[in-house]
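Hi all, long-time lurker, first post. I run a small reading group and we've been trying to get comfortable going from sequence to structure in the token notation. Rather than ask abstract questions, I figured I'd post a concrete chain and ask someone more experienced to write out its structure so we can walk through it together at our next meeting. Sequence below, copied exactly:
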Amino acid sequence: MARIVITGLWICAITALSSFAVITWMPALPKPKAEEYLEGLTYQKLKPLSIPIIAEGNVQGYVMATMIFTADSHLLKGMGVTPAPFVADESFRQIYSDGDLDFRNLKKYDINKRLEEIRRRVNERLGSEVVKDVMVENFNFVTKKDIRS
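-- Answer (accepted) --
Happy to help. Here is the structure in token form:
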């Protein structure tokens, strides 16, 4: 009986000492470097936009677009307003007023140029480089005849 008690105390002592050794040894390990580019960014997804496409005096259909943007989280905390409505407004304006976007005569479209223009104008309106990138999650055209009443 005494032998079992001494063995139990020996196991407890070894466990306690090894736990203490691991705790004191762990802080000396090198910490993995965090990727600095993504560290201060916040992703925000906008509600889907429904943008009418007008040609020859009639509504030809609607562009259904869902936009995502990244913003500097440090600057967002100091601002009194979120850039989401500005990105949505500028996206609507850019797509609505774009004369190159013709769904009757499809051709390759420079979406990167349009997204960069949205980012630039939003930052210009906000007065600082808050929005880092604007991305497209969904971009579809629905003709007027395909819309359900």
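A couple of things your group might point at:
DSSP finds five helices and four strands in the chain.
The CA atoms of residues 39 and 73 lie 9 Å apart.
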